[in-house]
Amino acid sequence: MKIGFIGTGIMGSGMIHNLLAADYTVNVFNRTKKHADSVIKQGAIWQESVAELTKNSDVIISIVGFPKDVEEVYFSDEGILTNSHAGQTVIDMTTSSPILANRIALEAETVGVTSLDAPVSGGDVGAQQGTLTIMVGGDKDIYQKMQPVFNAMGSSINRFGEAGMGQHAKMANQIMIAGTMTGMIESLVYADKVGLDKASVIDMTSGGAAQNWSMDNYGPRVLKGDYQPGFMAKHFLKDLRIVLTVANDLNLELPGTTVAEQLYDKMVQNPEWADLGTQGLIKLYESQNDKKGTNH
Amino acid sequence: MKIGFIGTGIMGSGMIHNLLAADYTVNVFNRTKKHADSVIKQGAIWQESVAELTKNSDVIISIVGFPKDVEEVYFSDEGILTNSHAGQTVIDMTTSSPILANRIALEAETVGVTSLDAPVSGGDVGAQQGTLTIMVGGDKDIYQKMQPVFNAMGSSINRFGEAGMGQHAKMANQIMIAGTMTGMIESLVYADKVGLDKASVIDMTSGGAAQNWSMDNYGPRVLKGDYQPGFMAKHFLKDLRIVLTVANDLNLELPGTTVAEQLYDKMVQNPEWADLGTQGLIKLYESQNDKKGTNH
Question: How does pLDDT run across B6-26, given as a tens digit for each residue?
């Protein structure tokens, strides 16, 4: 089975590494070729375009940036579905819109191509170590057929339903993280302002009802002033926007997630903060706080 | 050492049980006497008033409902500080205002009484089992002197600074929980609306970056329709109001916590929901959702 892999960013490179380690033939394409150098050295085969990659592969996997990138990769003249042939399978692993996942599934079907949506979590470390969580939507038989491919990249793989449900599961996950991130940042900002020792606050929360992964992992980084991305704020903002678009279509109000989206939007608008990790949100709070001065 | 204990609710009763088990003499008072019956059977000695209890005790501990109850217990004519004598120690373990904790400390000092603020977390189970987390503010020597008393009731005991800092630590904890609770409820509401299996969503979040105690513990209860309090929504609302009062005094904006306070305020205004646990917040979302109908 020849796999075509589109997107050799931090996530894609780790995933390709593990597909090669599982003895798959992997064709690769990336908008910026030099970002594919490391996987080419490992044995991946460079393709000059998405169209060429599509023609030379049985299963085509994409993990790109934003929904507009997904649209281009699938639907443009040079795109996957314009150049695919019956019997192929496409798997979009970008965290993207459930509606777009449905559209890919429908248009794929018309050309005899099967499809899955399969966004991931677990970050660059999970991608490198093959321990990603993979949330799959789409036909059950195709999901089962693709299990060996997923197993090469992830350690927790679940199907949540038909096309789009993998993306929906990822969104439910991101809504939860919106809560833990705003909670941890506001807790640390409050602690700082009232003169609590923040390390003690992080210790305290880790043992009780306030315990959460975000505080356990990002709390200590914030303390060290380490704002490098585990997960980039601008990508999280993209996810929250997808959530709110879906929620709006369903007449569903999510006030907590809405506030998180507004905060990350303000943060990402500042060019100095746009490329920071999600824990960098504390800089927005600190700057608003500085502007107003304190009466502490 | 004779301990006077004011407040024999669910929390107080468990704590008194453990003080008796550690061989302390415990005088008790409660606004509603029958709620003290069980600890009296265990050996606690009933007192007819706060004033009488104060006169007969060396260390006076209070754990009552709201800041106004704390004020009454400490400052009324029949209250602790009006009837205390030099050399006594008072410990307010109610989750209450840091400003009020400071006022108690100052007024206690003028009558030669030492004081600590020492709110707890860990719920009724922690109170019964003597495994509470206790967050202490106040003088270091008094804190050390009271260690055996705290050890009888808790398993994780930390001092966060001078008077009021125990309450501030508890507030930092509650801000974190505001995030995990709104996140988990919105995640489950979204999951339900888009047709995801909620049990699968709870499983998924438990293994990754979205992991948190609230989802792990309250998620399964929500699935079973179990809204009985681990922690009562109206008490959580009280805590969030204290947070926002402090934040407002400090010119500190906490948009996530503000939204959580607004949501719990709406929930608690409904008499059917006022006595539910914090996970009952999902009923507010479901009712708003029902009213608007769906286009799902």
Answer: 999 989 999 999 999 999 999
Give the type of residue at A129. Q
Query: CATH no. for residue B286?
Result: 1.10.1040.10
- Between CA A219 and CA A197 the distance in angstroms is 12
Give the pLDDT confidence of A52-85 residue by residue, as tens digits.
999 999 999 999 999 999 999 999 999 999 999 9
pTM of the predicted protein model: 0.95
Asked if residue B140 lies in contact with residue B159, where contact means CB atoms within 8 angstroms, the answer is: yes
Q: Which domain holds residue B13?
A: 2-162
- Asked which of B138, B162, B186 is the last residue of a domain, the reply is B162
Write the residue in B178, B193, B211 that is nearest to A183 by C-beta: B178
Query: Which ipTM score applies to this complex?
Result: 0.95
B198 is catalytic: no
Please report the sign of the dihedral spanned by the C-alpha atoms of residue A181, residue A182, residue A188, residue A192.
positive
Same domain, A38 and A181: no
pLDDT of B296 higher than 90:
no
Q: Which of A122, A178, A186 sits opposite B175 (nearest CB)?
A: A186
Q: Do A127 and A271 belong together in one domain?
A: no
Window 1-60 of A: residues touching B by CB (8 A cutoff) are none
